[in-house]
Prior knowledge:
It is built from 2 helices and no strands. By secondary structure, it is mainly alpha-helical. It has a domain at 24-74 and 85-92. Keywords: Membrane, Transmembrane, Transmembrane helix.
Amino acid sequence: MASIQSITKGLLASVIGILVIGLIATVVFAVTMFVISTGASLAGYEPSADYVVLAAALIVVAVILTGGFPPRLSGNRDDTESEDGFEDRTFN
C-alpha cells in the first residue's frame, strides 16, 4: 500500500510541475510577443502576426535552451574550477 501512495504522490507532483511550467511558458511567450510587436511598432515596422509569433517562439526556445546549460557553457567562470578547466556539474 505504501508503494501505491508513493507512486500517487510522484504522479501528482509531476502533473502539478507540468501545469506550472506550462503556465509560466505561456506567460513568457505572451510577454515576448508583446515586446516584439511593440518594438517593431516603435521602429516603424508593421510585421504580420505570423512573423511576430515566429520571432517570439524562437526567442522563448533560445531562452529555455540556454537556461539548461551548466555554468561552464554559459560563460560564468570562478576560481573554484579544477586545474584542467573542465568541470561538469550537470550530472551531480
